[in-house]
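DM from R.C. (forwarded with permission)

"hey, sorry to bug you on a friday — could you get me a structure for this? deadline for the figure draft is monday and I only need the backbone to look sensible"
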Amino acid sequence: MSKILMVDDDREFLQASKVVLEAKGYQVILADNVDNAEAMINSEKPDLIILDIMMEEADDGIVLAHKLKKSEINIPVVMLSGVSTVTGYDYGKCSDVLPCNDFLEKPVTPEVLLRKIETILKK
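My reply, with the result:
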């Protein structure tokens, strides 16, 4: 069973996603801020991180993704955000600026989230 860490300040989204993912057999741990996420990464050793870009600060997710890359923690990261709806800026893909394995735009359906997770974990 794969362990997924979901990091987002939207607690309703976290709880709804947890229900969906656990119904498919995943073990899901939640963090609603970067500090909690870092502690969970170190203690729980997740197989995948679903990471929101904008939390307490507009770039919290990006900062954490860069920390993970620098520390050479090789856990796949799927960035998740609705920033294009808020800012008009389309992140849309991973790069040196946005270090991740893949990207999802909010709102995301459970089917799309599950497909993305399955694809990343198979790699």
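R.C.: lifesaver. The radius of gyration is 13 Å.
me: no worries. The chain has five helices and five strands.
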